[in-house]
Amino acid sequence: MKKVLFVASECVPFVKTGGLADVVGSLPKNLDKNKFDTRVILPQYQCMKEKYKERLKSVCYFQMDNRIYVGINTLVEDGITYYFVDNNQYFSGSKPYFDLFSDLERFAYFSKAVLSALPLIGFRPDIIHAHDWQAALVPVYLNTVFQGDPFFQGIRTIMTIHNIRFQGCWNVGHLRWVTGLPSECFQPGKLVSPYQDTSLPWDEWNATMLRGGIVYSDWVTTVSESYAYEIQTPAFSDGLDDILKWRRERLMGIVNGIDCQVWNPKTDQFIAKNYDVRNFWNSKKENKLELQKRFNLPQNGDIFTLAIVSRLTDQKGLDLVDGIMDELARRNINLIVLGSGDQRYENMFRYFSSKYPNKISAKIGYDEELSHLIYAGCDACLVPSAFEPCGLTQLIALRYGSLPIVHEIGGLKDTVKPYNQYEGTGTGFSFQGYSSSELLDRINHAEWLYRENTNEWKAMAKRAMKEDWSWTNSSKKYEGLYDSL
Ligand code: ADP
Ligand code: GLC
Q1: Ligand 1: distance of its center to the CA of 149 in Å?
Q2: I want to staple 174 with a disulfide (CB 3.0 to 4.6 A). Which of 98, 138, 149, 170 is the partner?
């Protein structure tokens, strides 16, 4: 039995800001339990739900480097053992992330605390699977500071990139100070890019934690095949293409799955009317009526309803949506939005909701339960992202028979098959050029099909619902990778 430890900064059901939490929460449950003992370690945020905090049991506590407190607590949920790194000074507050400057210190502490705790928790992993920049220093510490300790010898590491935009980047001086890593780590080619402005003093060079994770881990994965290719190019790599190209023999894209127990229109408790592929058409209309009620829109089950469930950031292509809002409002359609994030986009959706109260309605905030009703009640989901490592919203939409309209990029390209009217294939609509006009063109096509060729629409929704986006296939790929290490 191989032992695998996931290290991450968020995980459903304890804390979530985006898809990372969904993946860390669902992949371990889907790995073969006869072959892998998979556990997860997370920061113990004060903002974690009370019902989980009450169940925590202490495993150990100690002073790391003789000066900083580390407590390890644990609970078992749904058959998976979770460990939590406790330190009030670092993980108090109302949310998991604050400003980058202080987050760097928090997650450097977290990564080192994870390794320091391993000899004391009675679980020595064969493989450490680190997720995103917040855990990226684990492979770095392991192969430097902890290298001499026989306990750690032979532990293999995987670094998974969920979003290369976030890297944990600051200058060498600050990162040396918060990480305590030896200066060899800050040589060009390690945490520091080989292309530095050498006229600047070394302390002012840029260093990134994610680069360190990529350099020091045994394997690097990311969350779709297309994104694995894209991040080797300057346009998508945010400055890391050199190292990813260099490591390409050890770089693999594995598309995410979704938790099909949580996301199941047949059993979903948060929707008005459960359904499956046989009765989705009428049932989705009932969900639409409830959705319209919740969003204060006139109730009409036949209105073509578009939805966006998203973090409201530049990544998500909302500038394209901005460009077509007035045009959309001229049609007999609904646009429903659930999201939070950048002020600019929050205000944009607030503005258009008040301008067109009978057509457009936005709720600014995070609401897991409501998101279920949206996926069930809308007809199509907009995901026009500028870049998208994988994307889970389009996968959930497919499962709920709501057709995705997407920019053909990253994981969106790998998971949504564009509608082909001649062959009668496809599960959604996609556009290649990143522009408002192309997005509008695809929406027009979708709306036309929904109204004028309803049987084709229904056939496509059925194809979408029948696809398997559970973890069944992708977990096998992770298992293969774990076996190969
Ligand atoms: P990302 O991780 O880049 O935010 P993903 O598509 O991978 O994008 O995952 C987003 C996840 O977060 C999905 O499960 C989606 O339903 C959920 N989500 C995003 N915004 C909200 C919100 N405002 N309320 C509820 N769920 C949300
Ligand atoms: C990131 C990406 C998203 C991906 C998620 C889970 O947040 O933006 O595309 O689905 O991680 O891997």
Answers
A1: 40
A2: 170
pLDDT value for 93: 87
Q: How far is CA 156 from the centre of its chain?
A: 24
Lowest-pLDDT choice from 81-90, 189-198, 221-230, 373-382:
189-198
| Neighbouring-strand partners of residue 72 | 60, 85
- Closest alpha carbon to 309 in 336, 347, 343: 336
pTM > 0.90: yes
pLDDT digits (tens, 9 = 90+) for 228-255: 999 999 999 999 999 999 999 999 999 9
CB proximity list for 385: less than 8 A, separation 6 or greater:
315, 316, 317, 391, 406, 407, 409, 410, 412
- Counting atoms of ligand 1 from 1, which one is nearest the CA of 394? 6
Nearest ligand 1 atom to alpha carbon 340: 23
Q: Please, are residues 3 and 37 in contact by the beta-carbon 8 Å criterion?
A: yes
Q: Which residues pair with 83 in a beta bridge?
A: 41, 74
Ligand nearest to the CA of 340: 1
Closest-lying ligand 2 atom to the alpha carbon of residue 392:
10
Distance 230 CA to ligand 2 centre (A): 15
User: What was the pLDDT predicted at 459?
Assistant: 98
Ligand 2, pocket residues at CB < 6 Å: 18-20, 23, 162-163, 223, 256, 388-392, 411
Average pLDDT score over residue span 123-149:
98
Q: Which of 110, 165, 160 is nearest to 138 (CA)?
A: 110
What CA–CA distance (Å, rounded) separates 419 from 137?
Answer: 43
CA of 458 to the centre of ligand 2 (A): 29
Residue 431 dihedral angles phi and psi, to the nearest 5°: -130, 150
Higher pLDDT, residue 449 or 196 = 449
Distance from residue 392's CA to the centre of ligand 2 (Å): 7
**Is the pLDDT score of 436 beyond 90?**
yes
State in Å: Cα 309 to ligand 1 middle.
6
Alpha-helical (H) ranges within 137-201 are 137-142, 172-179
